[in-house]
Every structure is written in structure tokens, then in C-alpha cells.
């Protein structure tokens, strides 16, 4: 009975964490990820060219790069974290490592995505390329990251469904 109560409390706390992270239109994620994205992008660019940073704008040569909220990809991070938190039967330490590895991987991939788009600024096809990177490639990056995490950490549960199935078994 005590193990059952512990499992229900864990389930409840995981979903409370998902709600808390998503509050305020992903405020927490934007607060953390925006400066990290801006400074990481600027730091990498400054290795190759002279940059000037003003708020969320990076100036390089004749180009202006604005790291707007969608560039930060907070919703992608939220989806990834929510998937991991809504997956049952993961030890807390393993879950923490999985979230850390997933967010670090996605952060690296997102910075790479931004850097790959920079040479195309000002080109007539930039908006189309940007749309493809944002809408299609970002989805693939989240899925590949999640699938890699579940394989790496040998996670067998299905997000949400495994919790629902467990709660249903309690009612029976």
C-alpha cells in the first residue's frame, strides 16, 4: 500500500511539474533559454567574425540577427520535458539525467539551426528556408532527441498512456 501511495504521489508531482513549467506562456523556459540562446549564438559567431550584441540583436558585418522568442524554441523544450515527465517507471535520478541530456542536445541542435540559417539572411528564399527549418526540421529534431533519450536510458513506458493505464488498474 505504501509503494502504491508513493507511486501516485510521484505521478501527481510529475504532472504538477509539467503544468508549472508551462505556466505563463512558458515564462520559465523563455526566462532561462532566451539569454542562453542569445549569448551562445553571439559567442560562436564572435569566433569567426566581429559581432556586436544589443539586447536580443546580434550585428555582424551588414546583417542583423534578431533572436526572437520563436528562435528560442521554448515550446520544443516544453514538449520534450513534458514527454519525459509524463513517462512513468523512470527512477528520479535517471529522469533528471534524461531531461538534462535531452535539453542539452536540443539546445545544441537549436543553436546549430540558427547558425545554419545565418548565411542565407537577405536571400530571396530566406523566409521559405526559415519556415522549413522552423516548422519541419524542428519537429524532427525534437522527435529524434526524444527517441534517442528513450533508447539511451532504456525507457519502456509510453508517455501519459502508461500513467493512465496504471490509474485505471487501481480503479478495477
Features:
6 helices; 172 residues; 3-stranded antiparallel β-sheet; mainly alpha
Order of helices and strands: HEEEHHHHH
The number of distinct structural domains comes to 1
Task: Report the oligomer.
Answer: single chain
Number of strands: 3
Strand portion, in percent?
5-15%
Number of helices: 6
Helix proportion: over 70%
Rg (CA only): 19 Å
The largest beta-sheet arranges its strands as: 1-2-3
How would you portray this structure in words?
The structure is a single chain. With 172 residues, the protein is mostly helical. It has one domain. Helix content is 73%, strand content 7%. The protein has six helices and three strands; from the N terminus they run αβββααααα. It has helices at 2-46, 69-72, 74-85, 92-117, 126-152, 161-171; strands at residues 51-54, 57-60, 63-66. Strands 1-2-3 form a three-stranded antiparallel sheet, with helices on one face. A hairpin with a 2-residue loop joins strand 1 and strand 2 (57-60). The chain is elongated, with a radius of gyration of 19 Å. It starts with a helix and ends with a helix. The model has no long low-confidence stretch (mean pLDDT 92).
